[in-house]
Design brief:
By secondary structure, this protein is an alpha+beta fold. The chain is 60% helix and 14% strand. It has 2 domains: 1-99; 102-241, OmpA-like domain (60s Ribosomal Protein L30, Chain: A).
Length: 242
């Protein structure tokens, strides 16, 4: 580029006008617009499906969450109902297992009667031991004077041996044992007869449960109102199979 060319260049009023013509400025604006539109189109094409997918997943999540909550509530209620029904079933089964039918109880009482008669054979007889049965209840009556002192609540040595012989048969038997004390009325002193009957029942109950080995939870002492006693029966052991 010669000197003359540089002088012609200096004579131009605006060098920037020569460097950047109006046509070239318009081209930059068009290019920028194209780039902007392309960027917007790309963003719309890329992010819009993601947004729609996110919105759809969010709706499905809320729906599933609601259904899950409902199902969990229903499951909880069902489990509670099942537990209640199971508890009632177990209770009924327990009652059914603990209570035998009438025929079974009578059968058990018959067998127990046979075993007791065999064990107490040498004690049987008037004035000693009498055995009777009313369906499922077995009664063993002890009389004075051979087994029970007539004027006290104590048992004779023979009476103690007889009760422990009976206790040996009751140890393994699933039965309730009620030892009933009796006493004749005392004229002018009704409390004395009650006391004597209670002492007889208590002494025999303690002997059977502590000395003779019968489970104390299955033995109880019972006192009856003083009355005229047939055959001098001062103690009665009533055995009820369960």
């Amino acid at each position: 580029m010669g000197k003359k060319d540089w002088q012609n260049l200096d004579s131009n009023a605006d060098f920037s006008a020569v460097a950047l013509t109006p046509n070239r400025g318009r081209g930059w604006r068009i290019l920028s617009g194209v780039l902007f539109v392309a960027s917007a189109t790309f963003a719309a094409a890329y992010y819009l499906p993601l947004y729609r997918a996110h919105a759809s997943l969010s709706r499905e999540y809320r729906t599933l969450s609601t259904e899950s909550t409902t199902q969990h509530k229903q499951l909880t209620e069902t489990l509670d109902t099942l537990k209640q029904v199971s508890a009632e079933r177990d209770h009924l089964n327990q009652i059914a297992a603990s209570k035998k039918s009438g025929d079974a109880l009578v059968h058990d009482a018959e067998k127990l009667e046979h075993d007791v008669q065999a064990a107490l054979k040498k004690y049987l007889g008037k004035g000693k031991v009498q055995i009777s049965r009313d369906k499922e209840k077995l009664r063993v009556s002890l009389s004075a004077p051979a087994l029970v002192h007539a004027t006290t609540g104590e048992l004779t040595n023979t009476g103690k041996k007889m009760l422990c012989q009976l206790g040996g048969e009751l140890k393994s038997a699933n039965a309730h044992v009620a030892i009933q004390g009796y006493a004749e009325p005392v004229a002018g002193n009704p409390a004395a007869a009650w006391k004597l009957a209670a002492v007889r029942a208590a002494v025999a109950t303690q002997l059977v449960s502590e000395t003779c080995g019968v489970d104390p939870h299955r033995v109880e002492a019972v006192v009856h109102e003083p009355t005229q006693i047939a055959d001098d029966n001062l103690l009665v052991v009533e055995i009820t199979p369960q």
